[in-house]
């Protein structure tokens, strides 16, 4: 899993590439959390255009970042999910609590 980060004011855009699974979830979580705290980020956009697979560890990454951003009074948006990842997100019920585009 690779991740590129971009900053737009108080918004962090995380562009992920690869498989978001147990082998990389902790690293992704730590990198995003560090950037949120270091740069005073209040909004988070996670770009899943190049994410080909996600397991329950990935769901944990999404939920944890959502809670953190919400506690800061910000918004989180997940964009460009692929059909196979979108199905996992739908089954986990994340579309009822988070914003997706």
Fraction in helix: 40-55%
Question: What name is given to the CATH topology?
Answer: Transcription Regulator spoIIAA
Q: What is the helix/strand order?
A: EEHEHEHE
Overall strand count: 5
**Mean pLDDT, rounded to whole units?**
96
Biggest sheet strand order reads 1-2-3-4-5
Number of domains: 1
CATH class placement: Alpha Beta
Poorly predicted runs of 5 or more residues: none
Strand content: 25-35%
Radius of gyration: 12 Å
State the CATH architecture: 2-Layer Sandwich
CATH superfamily: STAS domain
Helices, by number, come to 3
> What kind of sheet is the major sheet?
5 strands, mixed
What is the approximate shape? globular
The computed structural class is alpha/beta
Distance between the termini: 22 Å
Quick description:
This protein has 101 residues and is an alpha/beta fold. It has three helices and five strands; from the N terminus they run ββαβαβαβ. The two termini are 22 Å apart.
Key structural traits:
5-stranded mixed sheet, Transcription Regulator spoIIAA, alpha/beta, 101 residues
Please characterize this protein's 3D structure.
With 101 residues, the protein is of the alpha/beta class. It has a single domain (2-100), classed as 2-Layer Sandwich (Transcription Regulator spoIIAA), CATH 3.30.750.24. The protein contains three helices and five strands. It has helices at residues 25-39, 56-71, 83-92; strands at residues 2-8, 11-20, 43-54, 76-79, 99-100. Strands 1-2-3-4-5 form a five-stranded mixed sheet. Strand 1 (2-8) and strand 2 form a beta hairpin. Helix 1 (25-39) packs parallel to helix 2. The two termini are 22 Å apart.
